[in-house]
Design goal:
This protein has about 100 residues and is an all-alpha fold. Helix content is about 65%, strand content about 0%. The protein is elongated and about 50 Å long.
């Protein structure tokens, strides 16, 4: 799924594989393999691709057909983060034992 979406996003922006590869810091041949579904980007590169195209990683991976995060998604994440902060504060912070 990600290979098709990468190709579509790149073509919509009228960019070459080389241009995208340079922007995300990989070789053109590596990026070409992503589009050919012959290689998968690591998590860091996947995030760079998502940031470059201004889409979510879930969209790239085919987990959603919506390329952007909705306001509801952002609110849900903010609520979850606040709950985590509260839980950490109640437990006295993180322990690394």
């Amino acid at each position: 799924m990600y290979s098709e979406r990468l190709k579509e996003l790149r073509k919509n922006k009228k960019l070459t594989q080389k241009e995208v590869a340079e922007k995300i810091g990989v070789a053109r041949t590596t990026y070409a393999m992503y589009e050919q579904n012959r290689r998968e980007p690591d998590n860091e590169t996947l995030q760079k691709i998502a940031d470059f195209f201004n889409v979510t990683t879930d969209y790239l991976l085919g987990r959603t057909d919506d390329p952007t995060m909705t306001a509801k998604d952002e609110k849900d994440i903010a609520k979850r983060m606040e709950k985590i902060k509260q839980d950490l504060a109640a437990d006295g912070g993180l322990s690394f034992y």
